[in-house]
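Because showing beats explaining, we let one protein speak, sequence and backbone structure tokens together, and leave readers to judge.
___
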Amino acid sequence: MTEGAEKGKVDETPISPIERRNSLEKHLQTRPDPKDLKDRHILLDTNAAPALQSTAQDLERQRATDSLKKGLEKRPEREELVERNILPDSNAAPAIQGQQRELERHMRADSLEEKMKHRPKPEELIKEGILQADEDPTK
């Protein structure tokens, strides 16, 4: 026989009743307790009769669906969230919005720095009558 055929072959060697019982006892000893199975969502954590558990689960799922639908109906529109500064006013992908904000901040800083370089001196403002002589910030 080929190796693949040997793997697919079922071992039909008879097992003695003692070996079978020992094997079963060994597996029952390592069996997880019902609380662990409920915590891992393998067993349903319910007091309902087994015949009603499926219906109870369907009702719970429907209740959650209805709750989500109500929540989504009350959800504010994107424009309202932008106006309230909850969402950024950006069409950029979320992964690059942080970089976009950083770039905008640097651009504002550069613009402010450029405007400060061209700012009129206090003497010029006094000459033009914008500042009074006693308001000179350099004195």
Summary: The chain has a mean pLDDT of 86. The chain has seven helices and no strands.
